Amino acid sequence: MQRLGIDNPEIIAGDIERPVSSKRPLESEGILIRGIKRLRENTLTLVQTLIEILKSVFEELSEIPSGQTLITEFIPTVNSSLSSFSYQSPHSESTNEDNSVVTDVIGMSLRNIAGEFKENIDKFIFCKGYKETFYTFLFLYKLIESVFPDYRTSVSSRHRANINKITAPKSIYFYKEEKIIFFEILNIFIGYKLENGYGVVGSYKIPEITLYRRVNGELVPLTRDQYSDYLTLAGGTQWVIRVREELECVRAMIGDHIVWTKETYLKGFLVTLLYKFADDSIVVEAGRLFKFTKYNKMWIEKTQIPFLLTHYAKDEIDGFIPVFIENVSIDDKNKYILDYTNEPNFDMVKYRDKTICRHQPGQSFPKSMSCYSNLKTFEFKFDDKFITYLLKGNELIEKHHHIPPVTLLSQDNEGNTRELSSDDYNLQMFTKGGIKFVYTLSHGVCTLIKYYDRVIWSRNTGEKPLYVVYRQETGRLEVIFEDKILLFDSKNPNSIVQTIEIPPELTLHKRNDQGETVKLSPLEYRVQTSEKTGLKYTPNDDIICTELRHNNRVVWKYTEGVHKPLSFTYFFKTKKKITVKFHYKPSLKYQLQNDE
């Protein structure tokens, strides 16, 4: 890119600044007048050149589909310093002459530069006037700042006519995997897709972000050498700013607006800032992870939970950028559930400074993760297994639990079957009291259950299973209905199916929106076998059970403001007994009389 300035290389400083000789005053004054006229002419030429540059860039932007241009301002920067032009010689230990090409892109339109890269997409491309860095999935080119003085003698003749019309990109980002190229020009990124023609993928204005540190109690802006910045496609098109580790960055501003300021309770300083072009949101990594979205000219802050758990995605320059996980819930057991649906893929999870897990090549990405508030056990759910990580001091214990070969199917009236998808059921793993897998079914959708290729259960008229439970230790399968539980021994194909009738005398209740006490529906709690003579009733996380009744007599009642119970266990085969289990306090036990 030709850097344009007030100083024109044709103007010799001596012609203007030379002292006027007393012997030849008229001649000296004539030289001065001619120099001033020449300066005025060149100033007009500069203005005309800037107009041509703007026209050229706007011609590039006019190709962008409606709704993709995010430019709000367009203010070119004029640099008054011009110095000698030099070519960057091709050099790379990993390249050879047969697999590399040298091209002259300065003076070319962005579309033509994109064409050069498309034609040589499988080669190492070296651009004259640029310093290149080759990463695994990114070729990054930075314009050498000293490339523009006497351009007419430094470039090929076919480009000289365009010198006053086209400005060269400051940076070129060539993403080989995605076949996308981005040009940084006049504080704007313009992107092209290098397949199926030359599609313009979008343009994005680089935000005016200023970072500050404290020096002798005063806020001082960080200088350009105190941070690095670059474009990444990891997690969406984002502008990344990384602050040098030894600096203590305490504030981030965009334009005149304060986005983030370090609070006194925070131990960490800003180390990474991400600006996402799609929604103008900002993520700040500073000991914790914060996300800021703009609403009515105000920046709304959201803190990542759990606080000390951070996800990272690998970017194209072999670094890691933080990923803010939006869909996080916490249940009454202080269990965090992170749903990775519609979230960017990530490659590493850290708790404090401890790496919990890293994504391996060829491995699928997890669908969700759960952990308790003590952050000692982390459970990742994949398509084919669960992986748990247990922190014991500095030791990290990893365990793999493969999902059992249970197949859930649906069969229509014509006998056609289909395997249920994840939209038809939810699978959870529980470790307490032995590993068990619990399938929560959409009501009435499952009509056939297989273990490997063996049919375990097929629906009779009117039967609608609610849950399927597989106990890993014993291999027992439980198919749970509203009024009964069928028990199957998956390890013994000749075993007899056992049936346990769910006793109708025990009922769970809640208060509805009108304040009335109503009975819980079978979909609002789960019943499963417990020990040898009991049944365990577990309300759903979003349900508060307010009464437990036996033969319509209230046995237990919920007290407003205290923790809700986790489960109820009913022992009914010999002596009738009910146990109410809580998370934070001892269980309550009720002995029932035989006539109750």
UniProtKB/TrEMBL annotation:
It holds the Pfam family FAINT. InterPro entries: DUF529. This is Uncharacterized protein. It comes from Theileria parva (East coast fever infection agent). The lineage of its organism: Eukaryota, Sar, Alveolata, Apicomplexa, Aconoidasida.
